[in-house]
Amino acid sequence: MEHLSTQEQQLCDFLKTQPRVHNNRYTESAENALLQALFWSLACGRPDYLKLFFPENTRPLPNATWKLRRAQGNSDGDEFTEAARGKACGHIFKAGEATYRCKTCSQDDTCVLCSHCYDASDHTGHMVYVSVSLGNSGCCDCGDPEAWKLPVHCSIHTPHADDSPNKDKGKAPTLPQDLVEAIRMTIGRVFDYICDVISCSPEQLRLPKSRETILLDEKLSRLTSRYYQGDIVEEPCEFALLLWNDEKHTVNEVRDQVARACKVSIAEGMQRANETDDIGRSIVKYGFDVDDLLHVSKVIEQIKVTVTIRSARDTFREQMCGTIIEWLSDIAGCSVGPDHNILRQVICEEMLKEWSTGSEASNKFVGMKGIDDHQIEDNAAFNNISRGLMFPDAAAWRAAALAANARADDSDDDDDEDGDDGDAEVDEDDASDEDDDDEVDRIMMNLVGGDDDGSDFGEGVATVVVPVNAAFSFQGTQTTDADGDIDMNANDTETSPMEESEATMA
């Protein structure tokens, strides 16, 4: 096993045991405990190093949420501090805030400056437009070279002329070496932890659920012993029923269905529906009885919303990953003592490193394989209806086409066996099904259209019973009716509902 330092092993143990410590409920207290542990790990567990992150009298209280950006500067204006030099501003405009567009400097009409960056740059003699932001979108483009055809020299964000990448090369590091190593270890370990957890989370949310698959998912989601020295096995195991946002249902629809399925008040159902709408998912029920959760899930799914059932332990860890990602975003633009780039640089470097796998990674492969989505179901149902309208007796004709295609394959196989060209046999199982479907569709279209496709369909058609009065939209001679379009079939009349519909659409 790879050797871990004492501090790294302590961090791994902390991340592993948090679900049990907080009884699988990810509360504000659990979030605060996680954030504090991450900051102490960054600081190598030393109070004097922690002061490099949180300047004098800025360290939050133990029961508060620790945010580094808020501690190192105004939470609404830290993009204007010295630590922001050399970075893009990115200030997000609020409703009623002034925006400045310099037509002389900007690439297009969407490139704007906030008031701070406009005042900190020189636009004398330029054509400048001032507008008021609606507050629904947009940010300051200062520091983004692609936004400007003329350089915008901002005294806040533009790097100094002597700030070259190799300026400090060869000099002793400003920060203590053990602090730098602790920062790198902590950030690298949490990246691995995120991958360990998320790689076990099922991507295919609408696969059929059963007691066996849910229990198997719990086993495959355990953290392995390589870094975590074995996972915690709970007996009995608690599970969580999660509701996912699909952008198709209204909040009231979800509210009523959750209240009905979980037998809770309308207010509780509304709370879960709003949470799903806000963050994308919500835990609607905990329980130790998998069969009961399956029953509740079937009731909720009656309106075609997506629900999943996972162990409460793994659901807690997924919520931890959300906090860790926000934490990485929080510290990326901050300083450690006099070093304004160490956190951003280490995050980028660790993100590019290979993942040190610490779990079964049972769902590490992504893609559409096996995903059973409502939209796919709806499209398939629509296609089936369309085929039924075009081919009323499609089932019988398809059976005949399949038989003809099978005989054609047998004939090809016989030719291959008789041949002596010595060609190597090629295995193309992956493409055979698609080729067969294409061939069957081609035969059917030729049959309906009366064309000879060269197959031996005629020899096998007698084995398939096809109704004598089978009618197809393409069968027979096409005639033009009084309004100039092609008759749907021979029984169509000028006063039929179809004709009235055609006249209305015309």
Automatic annotation (TrEMBL):
Pathway(s): Protein modification; protein ubiquitination
ZnF region ranges: UBR-type: 87-159
Acidic residues: bias regions: 410-440, 497-506
Entry keyword set: Metal-binding, Transferase, Ubl conjugation pathway, Zinc, Zinc-finger
Region (Disordered): 405-440, 474-506
GO cellular component terms attached to this protein's record: cytoplasm; ubiquitin ligase complex
Pfam families named in the record: ClpS, zf-UBR
Membrane spanning residue stretches: none
Database matches in PROSITE patterns: ZF_UBR
Enzyme class: transferase
Catalysed transformations (reactions): S-ubiquitinyl-[E2 ubiquitin-conjugating enzyme]-L-cysteine + [acceptor protein]-L-lysine = [E2 ubiquitin-conjugating enzyme]-L-cysteine + N(6)-ubiquitinyl-[acceptor protein]-L-lysine
Taxonomic superkingdom: Eukaryota
GO terms of molecular function: ubiquitin protein ligase activity; zinc ion binding
InterPro entries attached to this UniProt entry: ClpS_core, UBR1-like, Znf_UBR
One BP annotation, GO: protein ubiquitination
EC number assigned by the record: 2.3.2.27
Domain UBR-type, residue spans: 87-159
Role: Ubiquitin ligase protein which is a component of the N-end rule pathway. Recognizes and binds to proteins bearing specific N-terminal residues that are destabilizing according to the N-end rule, leading to their ubiquitination and subsequent degradation.
Homology family: Belongs to the E3 ubiquitin-protein ligase UBR1-like family.
Protein name: E3 ubiquitin-protein ligase
Source organism phylogeny: Eukaryota, Fungi, Dikarya, Ascomycota, Pezizomycotina
